[in-house]
Design brief:
Elements: H1 6-13, E1 28-31, E2 35-40, E3 43-48, E4 51-54, E5 57-61, H2 65-79, E6 85-86, E7 88-93, E8 96-100, E9 103-104, E10 107-114, H3 117-124, E11 143-149, E12 152-153, E13 161-162, H4 165-170, H5 176-199, E14 202-214, E15 217-221, E16 230-234, H6 235-243, H7 254-263, H8 282-300, H9 311-321
Parallel strand pairs: 6-15
Antiparallel strand pairs: 1-2, 2-3, 3-8, 4-5, 7-8, 9-14, 10-11, 10-12, 10-14, 12-13, 14-15, 14-16
Helix pairs in contact: 1-8, 2-8
Length: about 325
């Protein structure tokens, strides 16, 4: 179904979002927060659903989100393949990535160029993030003098735990030489992303990277520089807004986090793993989908083509077409 007005397109897709898949013939299913993973031998088929997570909980679904994330991620994987190997083998459908099966390193490398989000909330409480204590008198959204690396453990459920480099190595989450390779690679990826985004009028504020090992080589896996794993601000709005004590124009899911904390302050950001999810309005879903579309266009240089459709049916047809069933 083709609809002219983008708000109407998103509204018509609200009841057609991809919440989950159950395609057992693809392999053993592992369901992550936003991706369904099917594992068979040394191949993994990742289906990016429309699920949206915030504060380490799956909250709702957003129209076209999975497609946008998969396409943005594959865009960046291609752009950065000369920096580090990645797990991509094939993209048979806009929501699907066929990848190498890697041994997951249970540490997320989080790189921050500005103080905002979790690091800012910790700063206000005088709590170090990954053992890093920042100088006094910083302002929200201020650019840091140098990149801040705040690794965390990857939790199966609940909140991830920020740990210092020394603590991660001491607890043997990863060997020292591999950790240092991850750190060096993450900085190179982030520097590349910063320059690319700046050229397109965006600020890459912060991001997370996940890594795995295959044949003793480091691979970047999962996703890279997406609206879920990163914060993006409009470059032109940053300086004036910062001087005026206002937030910059946000093109990622941070507006959704803000909406949750404002609408349900008694629940967020400290929602527990077993707490019920409150109702989510259609208006914020539509607004977030539009923000994702804008950042998609700013990052890739191409307008996102949104079409009302049954996503799962299309995925099945494409996987059959390319003989993955």
């Amino acid at each position: 179904m083709v609809v002219d007005n983008i708000d109407d397109v998103i509204k018509n897709q609200l009841d057609k979002t991809l919440n989950e898949t159950n395609l057992s013939s693809l392999g053993n299913l592992y369901r992550g927060k936003v991706r369904d993973n099917y594992i068979k031998d040394d191949i993994r088929i990742i289906i990016a659903t429309d699920r949206l997570s915030a504060f380490d909980r799956v909250i709702t679904t957003i129209p076209f989100k999975g497609q946008m994330l998969n396409q943005v991620s594959s865009f960046w994987f291609d752009k950065t393949k000369n920096i580090v190997k990645n797990h991509i083998i094939d993209i048979p459908d806009p929501n699907v990535a066929v990848v190498h099966q890697c041994d997951l390193i249970p540490v997320e490398m989080i790189i921050r160029a500005y103080i905002t989000g979790t690091a800012w909330r910790n700063y206000l409480k005088n709590i170090p993030t990954s053992g890093i204590k920042l100088p006094k008198r910083l302002q929200k959204n201020q650019k840091l003098d140098d990149l801040m690396i705040t690794p965390s453990t990857k939790a199966e459920s609940g909140h991830d735990i920020y740990l210092s480099k020394s603590e991660i190595i001491k607890r043997k989450y990863v060997e020292k030489d591999i950790y240092e390779e991850m750190e060096d690679t993450a900085i190179k990826l982030f520097r590349f992303g910063q320059k690319y985004c700046e050229h397109n009028g965006l600020i890459l504020v912060d991001t997370k990277y996940e890594f795995g090992l295959k044949d003793n080589e480091l691979y970047v896996i999962d996703e890279i520089h997406t609206q879920d794993s990163s914060r993006f601000w409009m470059l032109e709005s940053y300086e004036d807004n910062f001087k005026n004590g206002e937030d910059p124009e946000i093109l990622d899911k941070e507006i959704f986090r803000g909406w949750l904390m404002k609408t349900y302050p008694e629940i967020f950001p400290d929602i527990s793993p077993d707490q019920d999810i409150p109702p989510i309005s259609s208006d914020i879903k539509i607004e977030l989908a539009k923000r994702y579309m804008r950042s998609y266009a700013k990052i890739t240089g191409f307008e996102f083509k949104a079409e009302v459709a049954n996503v799962e049916e299309r995925i099945i047809k494409n996987l059959q077409k390319y003989n993955y069933f």
